[in-house]
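Input for the complex:
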Amino acid sequence: MNFSEVFKLSGLLCKFSPDGKYLASCVQYRLVVRDVHTLQILHLYTCLDQIQHIEWSADSLFILCAMYKRGQVQVWSLEQPEWHCRIDEGSAGLVASCWSPDGRHILNTTEFHLRITVWSLCTKSVSYIKYPKACQQGVSFTRDGRYMALAERRDCQDHVSVFVCSDWQLLRHFDTETQDLAGIEWAPNGCVLAVWDTCLEYKVLLYSLDGRLLSAYCAYEWSLGVKSVAWSPSSQFLAIGSYDGKVRILNHVTWKMITEFGHPATINNPKIVVYKEAEKTPRLAPGRLAFPPPRAAAGVASPAETKYEIASVPVSLQTLKPVADRANPKIGIGALAFSPDSYFLATRSDSVPNAVWIWDIQKLRLFVVLEQLSPVRSFQWDPQQPRLAICTGGGKVYLWSPAGCVSVQVPGEGDFQVLSLCWHLNGDSLALLSKDHFCLCFLETEDRVGTAFGRPGDHT
Amino acid sequence: MGEWMTVTDPDLSSDSKNICQYTSETKMSPSSLYSQQVLCSSIPLSKNVHSFFSAFCTEENIEQSVSYLDQELTTFGFPSLYEESKGKDTKRELNIVAVLNCMNELLVLQRKNLLAQENVETQNLKLGSDMDHLQNCYAKLKEQLETSRREMIGLQERDRQLQCKNRNLHQLLKNEKDEVQKLQNIIASRATQYNHDMKRKEREYNKLKERLHQLVMNKKDKKIAMEVLNYVGRADGKRGSWRTGKTEASFFLRNEDEMYKILLNDYEYRQKQILMENAELKKVLQQMKKEMISLLSPQKQKPRERADDSTGTVISDAEEDAGELSRESMWDLSCETVREQLTNSIRKQWRILKSHVEKLDNQVSKVHLEGFNDEDVISRQDHEQETEKLELEIQQCKEMIKTQQQLLQQQLATACDDDTTSLLRDCYLLEEKERLKEEWSLFREQKKNFEKERRSFTEAAIRLGLERKAFEEERASWLKQQFLNMTTFDHQNSENVKLFSAFSGSSDRDSLTMHSRPRQKKPQNMSNGSPVCTSKLTKSLPASPSTSDFCQTRSCASEHSSVNVLNITPEETKPNQVGRECANQKWSMASRPESQEGCYSGCSLTYTNSHVEKDDLP
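Predicted:
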């Protein structure tokens, strides 16, 4: 495992291009585009203000930089560095900006969700979509880029509009049986739209592309409901994480629940492997002292290295007592993600913040639990293989695969706190983002992976 | 009363009646004791009475007193004191005999009365104590009654309190329920109000939004604009088309078409998948059916033979089997036509299989039960013996492995001397080596001993052979002699016949070894079994010259204490097997340098003892 040198970064804005060739990162008001392999700067664009959001177009030809404070969006072209485009939303303000899947239109959401402006880069046309709903996930594109579903609120009633992305025509418009719609998401095959209600009510609705209600699912009533939703890449399963600390998995044939994954704080089943991150005690065995002390040891502030230990069951995980009298209590399934081959599901229960639960979807049971020393900030699956990268805001990145797991210290001067990470398209590198810096982590290629992930409990 | 009856004589029945009356009186009267005494004392001769009598009769009034006494006595039913007068005029004479008889009777009566009185007194005492006891009991019971009554009152009180509490709680519950209801109502009203408010607010918000939108839009905001250097081409290379009313409709239709196409594709894909899955499942089902049939077909013959209940199903199955192949193509048809048949047949097969399995289970359980009933004890014993044997064997094997390992290590250590690690190992093994050397020397000594023994054994065997020959000759002569004297010594003869049978050659020896076999199985019971064994041995070898050698070997065995118990068998006595046995012993010694010493030495000691004891028997 190799690490690149550390580059400057601001606002955690660092993204691989969709074709995997480039890496865009922001430093204040500058946008830097590098080659992924050489990491040399290919282009340097200067924006008008501090960049708050960047996004690659789907064809990797353009990058949009949003400056919400100014209400402006600047678009840069990789092919023609001199080409530029600036969109000003004027007094309407700007709170969100994104590409349409064709990479030629930009959707800007104005302040107060007054409207969504669709700017075309091909023609001078501008279209408006009124009544977008201000919610957690109000816009969803199908994976093939053909359709866009938009959550709307009209006359105190939730609606969903399905647009054809090629010409922004309204295809379907239907009202949903939700109290206060919280999010929508297309299934990866683009035929089913999952709609879920606000956390006050457990309600998940499934609509066909043509607006028919396929099914409605409600696990329980009178309690806080859905917290997170994820489709499996095969569109076969819909995983719903809720505030009761359970993940429920619906199937795509009957849309009924197949199974329920609880997240108990103690694990008794001896079949479940529990990896516990533990601080490595520095062993000063005679003969093992390297004569020139390693750099990590020389650094004064270097944190202790850690390793994974296989805990023997029963294991009790650290739990967090939720504060009852505050909004957004730290309970429930805050994050869940399917592996690209749909074989595994990784979840995080917010009441057990240090643990990542990995479920075997083939056997529909808990497979592995990773317990970190500090709360898990985010995790992401390798797009190519079942390999999960986890960061906890410390100086380490953690990787899990069915063969085992490793904890890797990010080298470098000072403290590199990994706040976020994102995988490269082909899964052989990983961008690690801290508050002010980022670096790339190159993983071994296929033939050397075997040694890196040789056996469970092989700790680096 | 009954006691009284037993005490009184039958000829004193009248008195007894009186006394009965007394006792009944005494029982009635409250001051019983005293009066009885008085009444009783009227009959016996107490001091007072004596003095009274002395006053009663004086010189002067003998006549009167006699007559008085006579009267009294006659009234009590005694014969008269006077002689029966012949004539009326004649003075009646005092009949001394009658007087004495009367006195005697009175005395007897007196004694009896005294006895009775004693009895009554003891009875009285008994009754008194009984009374006391009963009174105590009564008092105790009364106390108990009191306490239980108190308890009952307490419990009642508690019950009342609890009921009271319960009532209160019920009241509270009702209140709470009411409150809950109230609160629910409030919540509901609040919720409706909230919803209403929310809607109102949202409407207001929407209005404001609308207004804001208008303001933002109407401002003719110059700022809302896009600056583009030049427009880029569409990603798909097409040119943007202008929307007109006409084209819009067609666009919409095209979009619809596309959407439905996508949906259709998806459904087709899913249908295909489901079909594939179905086909797989059908295949599995079919295979299962086939396997079931094949599994059950050998089974079918049996029930056809013995049972008549399942023949119908069997026949139908056979028919189905016949039609199976022709129908196989039907699986590919739509499910509905085949489904019923398939499920039915599978169900049927399954039922048969189930019943079959159940039957088997029953059989197994029966067999188990029978087994338990028949040979529970025996099998257990066997088991124990077997386990013991196996444990012993395991131990032997372990020890052998250990020694082998040691030898191997030794060899290795000697083989790679140059290596430092081996040196280290050598150091480590030095002690062990020394020990091994000691053991080796011991073994050698033992080996020598054994060889000596072997030699002596062979010698003994030779001697034995010679002796046997001599003995047989002697026996022949002796038999001859006996035959001649048969008529004179009968019972001696019978003994000799027994002896003859004991000595009669190889067949008997076989029986001996047969005897020894079962004992080999349980070496722990050696000491128990040994006397029998040895007695037989000694019988078979009456004046064996090798007994001393025997003893020697035994003692040797006890010394070294590593002799396998299994080897201490009567077979050893056979001279032609001695050599092999010795070899065996050696082997066992080599294999087990340290074994359960006490047990074996004990065994062998008992062996020798018994041997010595029985030695002079014949």
